[in-house]
What does this fold into?
Amino acid sequence: MLREDVTDAIRAAVFAELAAVGFSRMSIEGIARRAGVGKTAVYRRWKSKLSLVVDVVGAVAVQGLPAPDTGSLYGDVRALLEVASHALRHPVASQVIPDLLVEAVRHPEIADTLKAALLDSQQGVVAQIVQAAAGRGELPADTDPDRALDLVLGPLYWRLVVVRTEPPRGYLDDLARATVAALTA
Amino acid sequence: MLREDVTDAIRAAVFAELAAVGFSRMSIEGIARRAGVGKTAVYRRWKSKLSLVVDVVGAVAVQGLPAPDTGSLYGDVRALLEVASHALRHPVASQVIPDLLVEAVRHPEIADTLKAALLDSQQGVVAQIVQAAAGRGELPADTDPDRALDLVLGPLYWRLVVVRTEPPRGYLDDLARATVAALTA
It folds into this structure.
């Protein structure tokens, strides 16, 4: 394998191992085996399991997310819920994120990486949605973007990641409508 | 120690170990050591770590939660948010629940126990709040209690367990107001 291919194989193996066995049970040996490389190939690049996971998960953050721009608060919230719904239903995300949230309590490096990879991009998107809505007069200019993020993503996260029961047909339309009402209350 | 005292010490040790090291790293040895009993005292009562955790966490479910009855939808939602906020800020709950949610993906017994211990009681409380509000004409009679639970607890759970930043002063009042708007949208 080329050097870049080895690195890519290790990165892919980290996500697969995180989803399959979780951070605490995951080992460098298991990652190397899944990637089809030797343990030394991993240790040459990363000094520990923690630094490997922080680096690999952190790299996802760079991609960022474009903010929807549909011309209405309802449209933007509905579009964001669609993207978030796909992301939270992805088997890797739905197992890796809660697992790393647990580890984040014990490892500040993981907390910082998760914050950068998940929250900062979502906060940026919601802040743009709120700003656009304020510009159209749909929301007050002093709307708190953190509170907006809680109201937009909280119910969907709770349903898909905590409760884990399939929402009824039309759920995202309904949730977008309820969220707009909450934001403008 | 009396036989019941041993059982109580083991139960307390399970929660402490879950919070300190998490389910996957937790061992019967560690639980026994923390409880000040021998390993055989644990194995005499429970056949495995999994059955021990399922039994101990499941016992919490029996206690249940009384539904608030303040006479208004806003008052009931605000009261529930107060209780949930205290529960979710408790260090044991804030580490044990996310940890067990992760394990629930791999162990159906944990999923069932968590559902009984956490969701069923919360669902029962929200269903009673919704029913009382419908009786007063504050909500339509066909309000979906599962959707109501998502809207009531989702934003608070997201903020306190996922984002983990301190909400501003007056957050619960504001959240209750926003939630009532979402429920009645």
About this structure: Residues 77 and 176 of chain B are 6 Å apart (CA to CA). Chain B is about 75% helix and 0% strand. Chain B touches chain A through 44 residues (CB under 8 Å). Chain B has a mean pLDDT of 88.
